[in-house]
Amino acid sequence: MITMTENLSMKELLEQQEQEFNSVKVGEIIAGKITKIANDEVVLELNYGFDGIIPIKELNLPKGKHTDEVYNVGDEVSAVITKVHHKDGTIQLSKLKLDEKSDLAELEKAYKEHRIITVNIEKNIERGVFATYNSQSLFIPISQLNTKFINDTKPYVGRNLEVYIKEMDMKKNRLVATHRDVLQERLDKEREERRVRIQAEKEAQRVQAKADRDAHRAQVKAEKESLFNSLEVGQKRDGKVTKLMPYGAFIDIGGIEGLVHLNNLSWERVESVESILQEGQEIQVYVLDIDTDNKKFALALKDINNDPWELVKEDVQLDDIITGTIVRTIEKGAFVKVRDGVEAFLPISELSEERVSRVTNVVNVDDEVNVMVIEFKPRNKRMVVSIKEATREPEEDISEFLEVEDSLGTLGELFKEKFKGLGK
Questions:
Q1: Which residue spans within 170-266 are E strands per DSSP?
Q2: I want to staple 285 with a disulfide (CB 3.0 to 4.6 A). Which of 1, 48, 263, 299 is the partner?
């Protein structure tokens, strides 16, 4: 049987417990020991004699880890109170919010102190990468990833980077970091240390270094001059494309550079340098021209020793009828590919005996045509052809009849001879 005093003590205990429960406020930090680990939550025993519940999504578990891999029954855990359930006497907690608050405080301190922190890159986009510092997310723009220009952020995913907090505005939920400043700071430090070290070197070492540099420059210059002096027009040289320009490409042939003009890339028409060459490409070129006064030289990618115009003049003569393919049309005519590297011009006036108002009414690109060569100047790389002349009917040869008429004489002479003596 329970006495009055015992009943009063129990009542006082319950009232005290109720007061303590009512004093619990959302947002407070509280600690407790784990009494149960379930699939979707962890249960804590709190100092108030009530249970604290942390849903699994509020545990802030490391990626890929399960609850029982991180926590054990009996572990003490601190968390933030997020909700108080008076009905069943439980308190809902969040370790994630506590971690976020703690991590944010660390970031604020790092920002104010300009201190380096380490973050992990989790995701990339075209304009930069998203990184995490424990529970906090940061953004690193592509311009802040390296001191050098980069155009691909994907290789950074999964890496740990040392960064400074560059911008922090929690009202706008904006955390921006920079890896570039860390790299630049170290580069600057290395440069300064190197500068101090160089200044500390003895005068004799500096003089020797200068002498070595001068000697090297002289050697390189001599090698370049020797290479330049060894050039001969028509030579074939190995080279490497160093730079592409709209008008041609610069080629390094072993320490000196020459220009391959657009017109000397191929015997055939070239629309752009990029359609033929790429920077870094290794090629063979021909020495086309040498300017000894200005120490410059021109190169050709096309085989200058096998000019297709020189070859075609052995097979084609004036008035020949040849077969070609229409490769281009313009208002005044069309261009006919006769051989690789040889194009002839077909004027609109030579398309037909009849008047032609538009070239494409008669011929189009890829048409195969028979044409007569009406003008041929291989030295000037000029050939004019005609469909009209190629299709013209040959004139009938009546010379034999003219010869017979001349031998017989006039009709009067013939009859005079025939009737001679009839009047006698």
A1: 174-178, 236-245, 248-252, 257-261
A2: 299
Contacts 24+ apart (CB under 8 A), 54-63: 54/79, 54/92, 54/93, 54/94, 54/95, 55/92, 55/94, 57/96, 58/82, 58/93, 58/94, 58/95, 58/96, 58/97, 59/95, 59/96, 60/95, 60/96, 60/99, 60/135
Angle, alpha carbons 96-132-114 (nearest 5°) = 110
Neighbours of 363 (CB within 10 A): 21
Give the C-alpha separation, 316 to 376, whole Å: 9
Distance in angstroms (rounded) separating the CA atoms of residues 241 and 239: 7
- What is the reported pTM? 0.40
- Lookup: tokens for 307: 């000019």
Nearest in space to 362 (alpha carbons), one of 336, 343, 400, 340: 336
The number of angstroms, rounded, from the C-alpha of 153 to the middle of its chain's C-alpha atoms is 14
Backbone dihedral angles phi then psi of residue 93, each to the nearest 5 degrees: -125, 165
| Strand 41-46 with 51-55, pairing | antiparallel
pLDDT in tens, 21-61: 666 788 888 888 889 988 889 998 887 667 888 998 888 88
